[in-house]
Input
Amino acid sequence: MEPLHIGLLMFAAMLVLMALRTPIAAAMFIPGALGYLAMSNGNALLSVLKGSSVARLTIYDLSVIPLFLLMGQFATQGGLSKALFQAAAAFVGHIRGGLAMAALIAAGAFGAVCGSSVATAATITQVGYDEMRRQGYSGRLSTATLATGGTLGILIPPSVPLVVYALLTEQSIGKLFAAAMIPGVLAMLGYIAVVAIMCRWKPELAPASRKTDWPQRLQALIKVWPIATIFVVVFGGIYGGLFSPTEGAAIGAVFTFAAGLINRELNSESIKQCFLSTAETSAMIFMIFLGADMMNAALAITQMPALVAAWVTTLPVSPLVVVGSILLIYVILGCVMDELSMLLLTIPVIYPALLGLDCWGLSKEMKSIWFGILVLMTVGVGMLAPPVGLNVYVVNGLAKDVSMNETYKGVLPFLIWDAIRIVLLLMFPMISLWLVQLFFAK
Amino acid sequence: MLKALCRTAALAGGAIALAVGLMTMYSVLQRALLSKPLNGDIELVQLGIALSISLCLGWCQYHKANIIVDFFTQKNSARSNQIFDAFGHLLLGIMYALLAWRTSVGAFAVHEAHEASIALDLPVWWTYACLAPGLALAACVAFTQFISDLKN
Output
């Protein structure tokens, strides 16, 4: 059999297994291992497996993932989100739709210490949902805003999908985080504008409420010091060149732990919960990495990524159309597939092709960073879009009086802004790259 | 029993990750204030995180936290999905078992070769030895789940 045929067969077997509920790690690993066997021999496979799990772990940057997850867990259980929501509500709550805007601001600020969108959606829902409903906000607007706000957890750095992208493409985590900053803030501002427009158009969605006076506002603002401190220390340190992202994550985890203890929100029970949740997610991510490593090692011998790359450069269309089509495929894949697995599965095949394209005359590194941010944005869409929008599941699991369909209808206006933003980032790479060049100028 | 073992291991794994965080913070402070970083901190982070993740694997499998795509099988009967899940646990179990076996073999091979890390002279086989038990525990959990799925 031709190597290319083996490659295609492996890919097909993997997709079938995935569709039949095989855990994604195994769905990539088993066909990958069999393909490797077919391309070489049993001894070669056994010798690769001997070191593969250790090799994945001795990449120092991978340590960033459990540490950022731990930090997000401590922030979630440590009651940090409550103070954020109350402070934001004190400032904008009196505007029509203001509580929804406050939830978005709180989610954005929380996203600056948490790298997971599901965790952000859950924690903001817990602090914001009841208050929004109590003040007469419509169910659809409430759940949709909270689900959308959750995506800010990954759009605003730190961001677990972005770390995974950095590991796959061997790009700097620090630079990718810097590049995500402006697009992330733009996402938040746009979402707020969407709420404002919707409330103007349909005032019955949300009532206006009483204005909070300045002393109360300041009081609420003071309570957000832990998150502000953590953000400044972690990102100031990373961009100031004081420490690496891994060290930043470590320090962030310790700081959020301390803040939770000082807030008296963390007790032995909730600390255990933090540990167990972190354990689950980091083990899950690690296993997907191992599965993807096996698959990619086998695909590499079949030359499939190189063939795809060569084929893409011969396409008679503009490179931007190619990038746009790749993103469109991501949006579609993201609708049925988990986001991290999607990245691990596709980036090794697509990335070499991207490097061969000439986009805006960018250098290889800048092109990789720019593309990483574009991919991150499409991943965000996947968290919201039906039929499997993970954030929508999470928020509806907590807000039981609103149906899932209502929430899906509610997120549509936010998705329009996502689409506009992705096109903007595609057409103007400097939105992402400006901060990178500013922070890392030589 | 398996549950208690997995849970305890995962708690220890989380605690180790936090300890790695504390150690790193100490090292960064030392570097910033006394320009004298902790020797070999990177090696300790790698070893600590390897141990931490290894300890977490069993709990992740016990909780069935490994992600699946359920979009195409949502409308199936619970029974047919259970058969698929049993099959999935079997494949995952094979993956864990294969990796556990090969990682242990790797540990012995590296031990024989007397490889050691650069800064602290830590034996490299430790990292292998950290990982193998976690993978083996996860394999046991997955096979148990496979058998109990079949019985139902």
